[in-house]
Amino acid sequence: MAKPFSIAIHGGAGTILREKMTQALHDEFLLQLEASLCAGQAVLAQGGSAVDAVVSAVTVLEDSPLFNAGRGSVMTSQEMVEMDAAIMEGRAHNVGAIAGVRHIKNPIQLARQVMQDSEHVFLIGDGAEAFAFKQGYVFTEQDYFFTERRYEQLMRVRQAGQCALSESEYPDDDKHGTVGAVALDQQGNLAAATSTGGITNKQYGRVGDSPLIGAGTFAENGNVAVSCTGMGEFFIRKMVAGDVAARMRYLGEDVATACDSIIHGELKRMGGEGGLVAMDANGQAHFSMNSSGMYRGAIDTLGNMVIKIYADE
Predict the structure, then answer these.
(1) What are phi and psi of 25, to 5 degrees?
(2) Which listed residue, 127, 192, 282, 313, has the most CB atoms within 10 A of its CB?
(3) CATH of the domain at 244
């Protein structure tokens, strides 16, 4: 008899405005989220690993221009794309992370490669790309990542002299862009993966919480897998993903209590906006956010799919 398995994903949390969401764009978001879930679910249903499932799910989101990861990444102050990603598997606590890559089509796949085929756990910039090309990755020109939407965002942010948007053209222009997935496989293993293009107009090689194990990404068998999205500087300061795991491990809190205590508690009081997706050892997923929305979805252990956008859904 097959053991239970499940998967959950997010496509970023923050200000997502209903009044600016057209029906066509709404449907496209739901379509991409469903495709991501189905890609990960297919791996799990065939007895595949949680690691392969979260990579498959995140890859779909990286390939979509709708999300701030991979192809849809925001631009830096130099009009370039710099991407970060991380993955962690819960059985042996193996991890792989990269930051500041510019020519890798799917950063989450490179993060897995660092975990599996490198003696290190975190590679950055030119070094990460040198490792990638040695492993056979194709050099991807920056043109692949260019979208009119992200260029327009950069121009508006520059005018405001900020690293955040002062006005919104799209329903989610004020959203903190990250994508992520958590999964439980039939062997009882948990895994988490997170990928991001960072923040618009970022400078000085800025890195947020997404590739930092214990801040934006964490997985531990028998406990929980977590992928975060939000104002990275605050998630780093609060070590959100690791804090969720610690509350569950040492306080015996369930996944919902642990997540909500942090996201709606100290993080929010600090001024940190965002959210997370977490999955416990039984395959129970929980989404927590202190923002108006978060692109998210899950397929539970019974095969039921749910996809949502707004916080009040």
Answers:
(1) -70, -40
(2) 192
(3) 3.60.20.30
